[in-house]
Amino acid sequence: MALIGGCVFTAALSADDILLSFDGTLVVPACELVVENTEQVVNLGIFNKRDLETVPRTPAVPFHIDILTCSEATKVSVLFKGKEEALLPGSLALEGEASGVAIGLETSAGDAIKLNVDNLEYAVTGGEKKRLSFSAHLRPLKGKTIGPGAFNAVTNFEISYP
To answer: For residue range 106-133, what is the model confidence (pLDDT) as tens digits?
Structure first.
């Protein structure tokens, strides 16, 4: 009701005059990482410089990423990122005192993983824990002298899913 100039007016509204709208967002539930420690350390061991000069690589050291898959995912993709060794493309460059070697990554089947390039796909079953297994090793750089000392390297991994 409205009062205008001493007169009372009423307006009747019909259902056609009322606008009722609905909105919201649908999301795909996130896949979760199962993390015991936010910094995984893969100890590649201690090697004799002479041994590294006579082998194409050191023995593989396994490591893994555990994920709890979301109910909607049927596959996940993993991409390892990091500072690439220019003399051995696809391998991880070292930081520290040691020199003349790089870190190679590979799948559980022994296939080389190219850092910053290979997007590895794995089938998953919704809601189940999945262990993605990999390994790392040292590879001498051709034409470079191997220098002794401590080293480290960091790689990040990116997991994506539809």
So the answer is: 999 999 999 999 999 998 887 788 899 9
Cα gap 128→70, rounded to integer Å: 8
Residue type, 94: L
CA gap 18, 20 in Å, rounded? 6
The three-state DSSP-derived secondary structure of 11-54 is CCCCHHHCCCCCCCCCCCCCCEEECCCCCCCCCCCCCCHHHHHH
Per-residue pLDDT tens digits for 48-93? 888 888 889 999 999 999 888 766 778 889 999 999 999 999 999 9
Find out whether 91 and 85 touch, Cβ atoms under 8 Å. Answer: yes
Question: Which tokens in the block code for residue 138?
Answer: 């040292």
Tell me how far apart the alpha carbons of residues 148 and 52 are, in angstroms, rounded to a whole number.
11
Torsion-angle region of residue 5: left (phi > 0), alpha (psi -120 to 50) or beta?
Answer: left
What does pTM read for this prediction?
A: 0.78
